[in-house]
Specification:
Elements: H1 12-26, E1 31-37, H2 39-42, E2 52-58, H3 63-74, E3 87-91, E4 104-113, H4 114-123, H5 125-132, E5 137-139, H6 142-145, H7 155-158, H8 163-172, E6 174-183, E7 186-195, H9 198-221, H10 229-239, H11 247-258, H12 268-290, E8 292-298, E9 331-334, H13 338-347, E10 353-355, H14 372-378, H15 380-387, H16 400-412, E11 419-423, H17 425-435, E12 453-459, E13 462-465, H18 469-483
Helix pairs in contact: 4-5, 8-12, 9-11, 9-12, 14-15, 16-17
Length: 484
């Protein structure tokens, strides 16, 4: 099957080179996607030829496929860039390893199979989110294959290229990266380190600070956008007050990097460590001390959670009482449903339950108690509307937008006291779908188990989800499985 080509670079020589490379790679059996990203596609002229980021997704990775990708890359001449005297070099490692030498065109060739890309998205969301912005793609986009749902505060502590990863690299005076090793049993990623000379230590320091600020901007804004230089420093001043003293220093090392000078200030590494410490203090102060944590929880299972529509018009109790929480919440809110109030009372026996009708399950109207098959027979127009990505109301009841609207009203009224909120499946799907910017017609795919908690942080009048790695993987897997 011929892959669609959406590579449209404004520089003609870059366009010629990228298209030739993409088409060469696209001839290899099992290739799903070829994506060009980074400074090569984002900046004018021949900027970025020392680090042409190319991400290749294949169905299954073997040593034969890996070698074929390298061979397809070496077949492309730098003469297509108007640089006939340059040599082409392949960097097939994973990580920020660079080969910035005169006379070289360097293709940073990163090859993943479907499972490898999934693992990379879950472990390296900062990198993969940047890649998803690229529109220069042959075949499927990276987001269509396996998307980064969102950034969370914890990513700065537990993802690849976290604060501790950076501090370890700086302490070792080296950079960590990975490369494939193939054997008779398959392939694996092998971790390695490369010692950095003073020039590359300075460039790595720039990389660290730039990425931390840029990724924090994505977290705060809740969207994947690239800041202009003016926006970058304005955000830094507005949202990272503890790090403002480092702006002048960072501007100096940014200028040195831009001019490709080799002499960075002797205090570059110590200043970078100090910046990371200030950044970590800001994270802790903002997300642990100032932000208010609210735990939304789906009620315990009932005998009527049998595949039929269970909304507001039947009110069963739960089958098993959950054990009390180890830490008593300051407040508990509950849907009016017995299954929610019973769950709330069991979780925190001594806390007054504030019942709020805005937390009720969706009203299925006359569909209450019907199976999906029965409703499809009786009201085929509903399924036709859903297939068109519309949001029809259940007959005599509500639609998803109605539930989301009353949920948003409830959230807007939360104060600075941490709380437990016991509610329902559709309500929590609305919370997750909106918070993760998932298209509304896909919210019904979001899995929410009974007694599962979803953490919501409130900060300065805004809401931020704080999901566990397991929750992120389960939700993303469900969305991707539906596409397949």
């Amino acid at each position: 099957m011929r892959l669609s080509n959406r590579i449209t670079l404004t520089d003609s020589s870059k366009q010629t080179f990228a298209s030739a490379l993409a088409l060469s790679l696209g001839e290899i059996p099992g290739i799903r996607s070829v994506t060009f990203t980074g400074s090569f596609v984002e900046k004018p002229g021949l900027t970025g030829i020392s680090d042409i980021d190319v991400i290749v997704i294949v169905d299954a990775l073997t040593e034969e496929i890996f070698s074929a990708c390298r061979k397809a890359t070496t077949a492309i001449s730098p003469a297509l860039l108007g640089l006939p005297s340059h040599q082409l070099r392949i960097n097939d490692t994973f990580g920020p390893l660079k080969f910035d030498e005169p006379g070289l065109v360097v293709v940073h060739l990163m090859i993943y199979d479907l499972q490898g890309h999934r693992e990379h998205v879950l472990k390296s969301p900062f990198t993969c989110l940047d890649w998803e912005r690229s529109t220069h793609v042959l075949g499927s986009s990276l987001r269509d294959i396996y998307p980064v749902l969102a950034l969370f505060p914890r990513h700065f502590l537990d993802a690849r290229r976290s604060l501790n990863n950076y501090l370890d690299d700086l302490a070792a005076g080296s950079i960590s990266f990975r490369r494939y090793e193939f054997s008779s049993s398959g392939c694996c990623e092998q971790a390695e380190r490369l010692n950095l000379d003073p020039r590359h230590q300075g460039e790595y320091a720039y990389h660290i600070v730039n990425n931390l600020v840029a990724n924090y901007a994505k977290l705060v804004a809740g969207r994947n956008h690239k800041l202009s230089q003016q926006e970058f420093f304005a955000f830094w001043r507005d949202y990272l007050p503890a790090c403002i003293p480092f702006i002048e220093w960072f501007s100096k090392i940014a200028a040195i990097k831009q001019e490709r000078e080799c002499s960075f200030p002797v205090d570059t590494i110590s200043h970078t460590r100090e910046f990371i410490t200030a950044f970590a203090d800001h994270l802790n102060d903002t997300w642990q001390r100032r932000a208010t944590r609210h735990l939304f929880l789906r009620h315990g299972k009932t005998a009527l959670n049998d595949g039929s529509f269970l909304g507001q018009r039947r009110d069963p109790g739960i089958l098993t009482l959950p054990p009390p929480l180890a830490a008593r919440p300051s407040r508990i809110f509950s849907s009016p449903a017995i299954r929610c109030q019973t769950t709330a009372a069991a979780l925190a026996p001594a806390v007054f339950i504030e019942v709020d009708p805005r937390l009720h399950e969706i009203d299925y109207g006359s569909a209450e108690g019907l199976s999906i098959a029965k409703l499809r027979t009786e009201r085929p127009e509903l399924f036709a509307a859903w297939s068109r990505h519309e949001d029809p109301r259940f007959p005599g009841g509500e639609n998803t937008s109605d539930v989301h609207e009353r949920l948003q009203s409830f959230i807007a009224g939360l104060d600075e006291r941490p709380s437990l909120v016991v509610s329902h499946n559709v309500v929590l799907r609305c919370l997750l779908g909106a918070g993760l910017n998932i298209p509304r017609h896909q919210w019904h795919l979001i899995p929410v188990d009974h007694l599962e908690t979803v953490a919501l942080l409130r900060l300065d009048g805004r809401s931020y989800l704080d999901l566990t790695p397991e929750q992120v993987a389960r939700i993303t897997d469900a969305l991707v499985a539906h596409r397949i």
